[in-house]
Design brief:
With about 325 residues, this protein is an alpha/beta fold. It contains two helices and 20 strands. The protein is elongated, with a radius of gyration of 26 Å.
Length: about 325
């Protein structure tokens, strides 16, 4: 029969176990935060020009890391969860050490002058939801390792100097909602695998040097609202499968080598269109009468093609139309 002394001993032992476990957890948390701090310090060292003195309070001795300019922390875990240094006129490179900030959910370095490459180590960031590096001077290719950022929702790399092909592995990003690679020097084909990004709402691959055809697999993107592949070197026809993208508001295929006819049912199937931009291609046939069903249409730009026949009177129903450009055809 247990005595009161036994009960006290057992209770004390249990308490010691809990205290030990809590101490171990605190130690681990401190170690992980230290990894975050070391990665941020490496980032600071990689910056060669800081006219706004962004890093003036990045001092671990006098200021907790969660109070550093541009840094946010997870409220419960006390781990670095965001780095937002938007429009700070910074120059330098992005160090591979940022791949060690395992709780990072947002990396926003927009409107700076970062050069060099996008580190492959960023692919280790499984919690990363927003990677926003647009309007910098980044070079080389888009790392294939970004396919491992399985939480990624926004991938924004427009207006850099990126080259090479678009990694097919990006099609594995099931949570991706927005991708913009506009205004780079990308070559190769539009990956068919992007049709697997079922949550995608906006895709802008314009103003690159992409070749080949528009993949029919893009017709699987039933949630997409804006699809822009204009100002490339794409050929072939407009895939009939795009008529499955019934949420489309913007379809921009201009300034390519797209040929064939505009699908006759485009206005029936894509009745939510607000902007249809097909100028400077090699499209032939007639202007579809069904476009008169696009009651929300604001811009209809079909100039510099090989279209023939008359202008359908059905276009007169487009009461919201602001821009109708049809010149340099055979109408």
């Amino acid at each position: 029969m247990a005595t009161s002394t036994d009960f006290i001993l057992i209770t004390t032992a249990v308490m010691l176990i809990f205290v030990s476990a809590d101490t171990h957890h605190q130690k681990k948390s401190h170690e992980r935060l230290q990894v975050d701090i070391e990665a941020l310090q490496a980032f600071k060292r990689s910056v060669t020009f800081d006219p706004s003195q962004t890093f003036a309070n990045w001092d671990i001795v006098s200021n907790h890391v969660c109070n550093w300019t541009g840094v946010t922390c997870h409220p419960q875990k006390l781990r670095v969860s965001g780095l937002n240094l938007y429009n700070m006129s910074l120059q330098g490179t992005i160090p591979p050490h940022l791949g060690n900030v395992s709780f990072l959910g947002v990396l926003n370095l927009t409107l700076n002058s970062f050069s060099g490459t996008i580190p492959t180590e960023l692919g280790k960031l499984r919690r990363l939801k927003r990677l926003i590096l647009n309007q910098n001077k980044l070079i080389s290719s888009i790392p294939e390792t970004l396919k491992d950022c399985t939480s990624l929702r926004i991938l924004n790399l427009y207006f850099n100097n990126l080259t090479g092909s678009i990694p097919s592995g990006l099609g594995q990003l099931q949570n991706l909602r927005y991708i913009s690679l506009f205004g780079n020097g990308l070559t190769g084909k539009v990956p068919q695998s992007l049709g697997n990004c079922s949550a995608l709402e906006r895709m802008d691959l314009g103003s690159n040097f992409l070749t080949g055809t528009i993949p029919s697999q893009l017709g699987l993107l039933t949630q997409i609202r804006a699809l822009s592949v204009g100002e490339n070197q794409l050929s072939g026809g407009i895939p009939p499968s795009l008529l499955n993208c019934t949420e489309l508001r913007l379809l921009h295929l201009s300034d390519n080598r797209v040929a064939g006819e505009i699908p006759s049912e485009i206005g029936t199937k894509l009745s939510n269109l607000e902007h249809l931009l097909l100028w400077r291609n090699e499209l032939n046939g007639t202007i579809p009468k069904s476009l008169g069903n696009c009651s929300q249409l604001l811009w209809l730009e079909l100039d510099e093609n090989l279209l023939m026949g008359g202008i359908p009177r059905e276009l007169g129903k487009l009461s919201l139309l602001q821009s109708l450009i049809l010149y340099d055809n055979h109408l």
